[in-house]
């Protein structure tokens, strides 16, 4: 696997993967010396990566105790998904008017990657492919500032996605809903696409309500 261009990006990617895969679970202390040694890096890029994750809300810092993985919070999830609803609706409306055949091919390629990862029970790969799928839908909007905010919101909720995808029923629902989303995109039906994306997010939140409470308990 090709290593990212900077050590900090490499460390950040590894920390994200560890949180998504459950290697670092909610509330778990982050042992910087151990992680730095395991990744073969100094503590400097690790500290910078942790600051990035702290800004996203994925880790928390407490004086005299250090960093730990953030606990799952329904309140945080609802706020992030409400922000996504508003911003992604705008991007999707504009993108639908600009879809090219190349854009639609990227969307369907990402959809196929989601399905292949689901078939292989590869949770990390499915989360990564799902992200490519959604941003393939939104990036044709040509709104880089808006999408930069949306990416930050996605970064903050990868741990929730990991919980959601742990269920066979939820993975099946995602695949079914993606099929409908792709059809709306191919037909350039903006209102339908926005409605389907809203339903897609709402179903995830509804499924996570009880799960997040159980995880915290």
TrEMBL record:
Name of the protein: GntR family transcriptional regulator
PROSITE patterns in the cross-refs: HTH_GNTR (PS50949)
Domain of life assignment: Bacteria
Keyword Lyase appears in the UniProt entry: no
Keywords assigned by UniProt, alphabetized: DNA-binding, Transcription, Transcription regulation
InterPro entries the record matches: GntR_C (IPR011711), TF_FadR/GntR_C (IPR008920), Tscrpt_reg_HTH_GntR (IPR000524), WH-like_DNA-bd_sf (IPR036388), WH_DNA-bd_sf (IPR036390)
PANTHER family: TRANSCRIPTIONAL REGULATOR, GNTR FAMILY, TRANSCRIPTIONAL REGULATORY PROTEIN
UniProt key word Repressor: no
Pfam families in UniProt: FCD (PF07729), GntR (PF00392)
Residue stretches making up the HTH gntR-type domain: 5-72
